[in-house]
From TrEMBL:
Gene that encodes it: ispE
Keywords for this protein: ATP-binding, Isoprene biosynthesis, Kinase, Nucleotide-binding, Transferase
Protein name: 4-diphosphocytidyl-2-C-methyl-D-erythritol kinase
Catalytic activity, reaction form: 4-CDP-2-C-methyl-D-erythritol + ATP = 4-CDP-2-C-methyl-D-erythritol 2-phosphate + ADP + H(+)
Binding sites annotated in the UniProt record for ATP: 103-113
Annotated GHMP kinase N-terminal domain residues: 75-152
Entry keyword Cell cycle: no
Stated family: Belongs to the GHMP kinase family. IspE subfamily.
GHMP kinase C-terminal domain sequence ranges: 215-285
Functional description taken from the UniProt entry: Catalyzes the phosphorylation of the position 2 hydroxy group of 4-diphosphocytidyl-2C-methyl-D-erythritol.
GO molecular function, one term: 4-(cytidine 5'-diphospho)-2-C-methyl-D-erythritol kinase activity
Length: 315
């Protein structure tokens, strides 16, 4: 009986794009990307509990503002759970509780992490043993960043970003994230990028940017990685949210090795030389942006995984 099954909690990471090359818009409306994702230690925890009907609650962790998160059937976590149930022929509704640390609409793929964690939690709860590849195939139907939320670590993403190849890395990289209260819509940023490029814009020329990122990761070399970070969406994000230009400059002035827009923004990612220098950068930035907008994190970290299986009656 489903009601006697324990709840399962799964944890999935946010991501930062170390490289984001955007090709022309495709016939299906998506853009071809060449990106390098790194999973970082800002997490979403999703608990799946057997229930009489499908349901969802969201809790803010670490000061996240969750007011923009849909609580209905459009929520990515709920969509993920229902998709898995449908494909596996499971008729056991769950209540999902999402503990959100990742900024909403922040360019760190928080919604995708929720979907990844929901897939892993429900797969364990229903004892389906779907496997990582099977879950990633389902995840790609929900969103381009969901497969990476499942795989985690560091990976090159192509296609819409859903085709992943792991990248060898050495050691950890230390980040400071500067959150922005505004939030930016990903489709709007891509549209602005297209508008700025104009019609007739071709694919990005093959270049050495990917090689430079991979070499820096292999060597565990934060300074080389700082020099290689780039994001084709940065200009468009800064045009739509002009305050980002100031935030990027403030991050560099505070001693970061590099400052980049994270994905489609508006979160700004600051790469630092060490955990200690991340703390120094935070101390410099507190008077400028306020403590509440700053998060430290390191990467790479693993993809979505089960945290705990609570005994019946546990919460
Ligand atoms: P990405 O970097 O993948 O483009 P993002 O980090 O910028 O995404 P998200 O927080 O993942 O943005 O969510 C973008 C939008 O998706 C939200 O504004 C919200 O309307 C919708 N959404 C659906 N499900 C969720 C969820 N579980 N958490 C957050 N947003 C969700």
């Amino acid at each position: 009986m489903s009601d006697h099954r324990p709840a399962v909690t799964a944890r999935a990471p946010a991501k930062v794009n170390l490289l984001l090359q955007v090709g022309p818009v495709r016939d299906d409306g998506f853009h071809d990307l060449v990106t390098v994702f790194q999973a970082v230690s800002v997490h979403e925890d999703v608990t799946a509990t057997p229930a009489a009907d499908w349901g969802l609650t969201v809790e803010a962790a670490g000061g996240a503002d969750v007011s923009g998160v849909p609580l209905d059937g459009s929520n990515l976590a709920l969509r993920a759970a229902r998709l898995l149930a449908e494909r596996a022929g499971v008729d056991e509704p769950v209540h999902l509780h999402v503990r959100k640390e990742v900024p909403v609409a922040g360019g760190m793929a928080g919604g995708s992490a929720d979907a990844a964690a929901a897939l892993v939690a429900c797969d364990a709860l229903w004892q389906l043993r779907t496997g990582l590849d099977g879950l990633a195939t389902l995840g790609a139907e929900l969103g381009s960043d969901v497969p990476f939320g499942l795989h985690g670590r560091t990976a090159v993403g192509t296609g819409r970003g859903e085709q992943l190849v792991p990248v060898l890395t050495r050691g950890s990289f230390h980040w400071v994230f500067v959150l922005d209260p505004a939030g930016l819509s990903t489709p709007r940023v891509f549209a602005e990028c297209d508008r700025r490029r104009g019609p007739g814009w071709g694919p990005p020329p093959a270049d050495v940017r990917l090689e430079a990122v991979e070499a820096a990761l292999r060597g565990g070399d934060a300074e080389a990685l700082a020099a290689a970070l780039s994001n084709d969406l940065a200009e468009a994000a800064c045009a739509l949210a002009p305050q980002l230009t100031r935030t990027l400059a403030a991050g560099r002035a505070a001693g970061a090795l590099a400052a980049v827009v994270s994905g489609s923004g508006p979160t700004v990612a600051l790469l630092t030389a060490s955990a200690a220098s991340a703390q120094d950068v935070v101390a410099e930035l507190v008077p400028v942006v306020g403590q509440g907008r700053l998060r430290t994190a390191s990467g790479p970290v693993p993809g979505a995984r089960v945290l705990e299986a609570l005994a019946p009656g546990g919460q």
